[in-house]
Amino acid sequence: MSTGAKIALGTSVVYSLSMVAFVHWNQHSERQKLREGVLYDLERRQSSSDGPTSSTQHNSATGSATSVDRH
Question: Which residues lie within the region annotated Disordered (predicted)?
Fold first, then answer.
């Protein structure tokens, strides 16, 4: 195998491994942010539990609003 071919192979392997590592790191980071958002929402809901127990949710697919009873 020529020197140029070895360099090209090595470069492509390093690039591929770097991309795989980046994608895994990015997915982990996004999952962590989602988890923190859920915990924040739960904490916010518990701190405002003295308010009304029903709320209105908007369904963007149908364009209608529905009342939801939360206990």
Answer: 41-71
DSSP tag of 66: E
Count the residues in the chain.
71
Q: Domain containing 23: what range?
A: 1-43
CA gap 11, 63 in Å, rounded: 52
Greatest CA separation for the chain:
74
How confident is the model over 5-50, as pLDDT tens digits?
999 999 999 999 999 999 999 999 999 999 999 999 999 999 887 5
Those residues with Cβ within 8 angstroms of residue 16's Cβ, 6 or more apart along the chain or in another chain? none
Report how many domains make up the chain. 1
